[in-house]
Request: fold
Amino acid sequence: MEFSAQQIADFLHGEVVGNPDVKVHTISKIEDGKAGTLSFLSNPKYIHFAYSTQASILLVNRDFQPEHTISSTLIKVDDAYQSLAALLQLVDSYKKNKSGIDTLAFVSGSAAIGESPYIGAFAFIGDNVHIGDNVKIYPQCYIGDGVVIDDDAIVYAGVKIYADCRIGKRCIIHSGAVLGADGFGFAPDGDGAYNKIPRIGNVILEDDVEIGANTTVDSATLGSTIIHKGTKLDNLIMVAHSVEIGSNSVIAAQSGIAGSTKIGDNCMFGGQVGIAGHLHIGNNVKLGAQSGVMGNIADDLNFMGSPAFDLRRYIKSYAYFRKLPDLVQTIDTLQKEIAALKEKLIKNNVQKQ
Reply:
């Protein structure tokens, strides 16, 4: 499918500078741009490619003023990166335009399926499941009894959703994710054996939540493990039982959150962050990669390190840490000089006597 520069500009509310009739059929990186492709420029580090790219259309910010001749037709927009995201979403929607229920899918007779569904081969839809309109469930998914999946959600291949979980509108759950598995909880008895504590709660994803591939969100012991509206979880994240994550928070890969911890709104966590259980993390908190959090954190703080502490103190401490070999050498030299001075003083005292 081809689109002209003018069509794209109209969609993005942008301004065409150049040939409005030039057409593209795909999107490329600016350094690899070829005729028939659209590219974009948002990072100043890539400006030099704007003058050499062969892309037919170049998406740029409105304040971009070229210093040399550019062969591409420009489309000026308020934010090139956000506009690219909108275009990619449009392209993605065409790719995912699947519909119908595959004859190899199993759908319980008590399940309620909305309009325009897609249910792929070998998907299993359990008893009393409610699936909204325009939901896409890809092959080999397991949807347990009583699950609710609201309108426009996408559940990619191989996802497992345990009984009674709730998935909001426009949620995206990537391949291999598991929602609603038992949390890691056992009660030791007098003989040293561990007795399993059953989980009778569920998992709730509010609207516009995205769950990365092979991420696990465990069921609550009682009540719900909740991920609030707009939050995005990367691949390979572990969210334990009874955790609550606020709205519009983002957590990078390989992070782990222990049971019953509460996380506020608009938080940003780097990769491999670990958070102990039963803690409270405030709103607008930022945690650097590999931070180990062992205590509560108030609103609007930036932490890093393991154990994690204030980012400014961490950077200052790390500057000292890097100097440790030199400091140790200086101390060794000083100790030798002090020892030599002591020896000299002792000899002088003996001679005087």
In short: Helices lie at 5-12, 80-95, 311-322, 324-352. The two ends are 104 Å apart (CA to CA). Residues 324-352 form the longest helix (29 residues).
